[in-house]
Amino acid sequence: MSLETHMCDYEFLITLMVWYDILFHGNLVSKSMQKVDMDLPTAVMYLENCKQFLIRYRESGYTECVLKAREICEELEIETQFKKLRPRQKKRLFLYEHEDETRLDPEHRYKTTVFDPLLNTAISFITEQFTQLQTHSDKWSFLYNMQKVSDSRAILLKQCNTLSDILKAGDDLDIDGEQLCQFALQKARRDQFL
């Protein structure tokens, strides 16, 4: 089969629509995260939004992709049917009563062998990345918005002490949580007067 034959295939066009939607959204997140003024809490928010998009897309995106692919197929005069695969014949043992496998219709087979695994893999990847960034953000993100956190001294002191504990090696402290909190409060007061 030629490349043109494969590209003029209904299943190929659906897959193309799926990849376009996923990569388009992923590209928006990637470009946003590469901005010079990007901060950690905003990056976490972008990744969470991307993850939620993929989860929603897994639930409702298939129907949208099929409709888009049908429109393209009509324009290009391509047949809008899934390929029917010839079922493989298995040798049956003596007194074998029934078939173990249910025969799936071609569209359901496509959805379960292409669409769902593709989105499950994307969601798994983004979840792993999001979890790592979320863990990092939980420890460090208050440093990016001390102005907001400094309104509540108790919360700021708790976060500074938590960071101090994280950076502690044995009895040696890299930073003192109380001093960091005092510094942040002084800086916030200075910034208010400027």
From TrEMBL:
Protein origin, superkingdom: Eukaryota
Protein name: Uncharacterized protein
Naturally occurring in which organism (per UniProt): Rhamnusium bicolor
